């Protein structure tokens, strides 16, 4: 997955939050082990709670002023988005804004995407690296520590890693769509279980990510330049592998040695692939994970 180097991605609103910048995780003897522990936590948490825990649990700082004075707006070119994970997020944001503004009447962008290092304050409370990427409905902002991306690139290789990264951003943006369209309203965000509101929200966000990625190749900037070079079947297959890797059953089996559907929050590997594919081959309107029987989720 590569960006067309002539495309203009300057509309993507992504900032890097100061403070932790320049600090290195680990370092010296034992640093590697620390990094690995953090990566395991990241993967667990992306599959654990990327909306519900935030909305339900971290209310300590809600309403407080967030210090954004050290934020630095990224100003990447499309060529840089092909080389740098942070710049790739900016490219994804430019594409997502274009796509969703055409899909949703009265659409408004998220406040932005904040790239942070180790910890930061958010409209949903304090956030740290081990939470993985998440969307905060209160301040309508996506938060991500790019160390999560290093892990995706390691697991899926550089090329697949790039598309898997877009899948993650597209998924979090999907939660923003659920927020502004009212889908989140009245839903039990801290429920767990195979057919819980949480799982339905997560599978719908996967579907929205798929719908966007399926259309992304057709998107053009203001000058008519395609944002992306054509995406290959192999790359799509790799993005599907990424969706499978973050299924509740897969993660539970790997980390606990057993699968417990009652604690599901995101759905199984098969379900995540199914709904990503539904989006990929369809439109957002096809992403109806609510109002259907549990048997139709899988
Ligand atoms: Zn999610």
Automatic annotation (TrEMBL):
Transmembrane region positions?
Answer: 25-43
How is this protein situated with respect to the membrane? Answer: Single-pass membrane protein
Compartments, as annotated in UniProt: Membrane
One Pfam family here = Zn_peptidase
Q: For this UniProt entry, what is the primary localization, expressed as one broad class?
A: membrane
Q: Which InterPro entries match?
A: Uncharacterised_pept_Zn_put (IPR007343)
Keywords per UniProt:
Membrane, Transmembrane, Transmembrane helix
Record-level GO cellular component terms:
membrane
Under what name is this protein listed? Neutral zinc metallopeptidase
């Amino acid at each position: 997955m590569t960006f067309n180097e002539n495309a203009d991605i300057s509309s993507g609103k992504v900032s890097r939050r100061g403070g932790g910048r320049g600090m290195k995780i680990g370092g010296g003897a034992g640093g590697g082990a620390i990094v690995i522990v953090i990566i395991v936590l990241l993967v667990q948490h992306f599959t654990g709670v990327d909306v519900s825990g935030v909305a339900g649990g971290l209310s300590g700082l809600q309403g407080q002023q967030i210090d954004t004075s050290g934020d630095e707006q990224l100003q990447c070119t499309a060529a840089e988005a092909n080389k740098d994970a942070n710049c790739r997020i900016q490219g994804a944001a430019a594409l997502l804004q274009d796509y969703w503004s055409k899909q949703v009447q009265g659409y408004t962008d998220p406040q932005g995407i904040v790239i942070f290092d180790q910890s930061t304050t958010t409209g949903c409370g304090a956030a740290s690296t081990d939470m993985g990427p998440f969307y905060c409905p209160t301040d309508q902002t996506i938060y991500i520590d790019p160390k999560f991306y290093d892990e995706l690139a390691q697991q899926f290789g550089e090329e697949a890693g790039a598309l898997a990264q877009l899948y993650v951003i597209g998924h979090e943006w999907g939660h923003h769509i659920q927020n502004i369209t009212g889908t989140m309203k009245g839903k039990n965000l801290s429920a767990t279980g195979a057919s819980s509101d949480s799982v339905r929200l997560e599978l719908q966000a996967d579907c929205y990510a798929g719908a966007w990625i399926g259309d992304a190749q057709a998107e053009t900037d203001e000058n008519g330049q395609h944002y992306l070079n054509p995406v290959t079947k192999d790359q799509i297959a790799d993005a599907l592998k990424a969706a499978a890797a973050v299924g509740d059953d897969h993660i539970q089996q790997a980390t606990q040695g057993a699968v417990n559907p009652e604690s599901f929050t995101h759905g199984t590997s098969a379900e995540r692939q199914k709904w990503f594919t539904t989006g990929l081959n369809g439109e957002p309107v096809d992403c109806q994970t609510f109002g259907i029987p549990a048997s139709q989720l899988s």
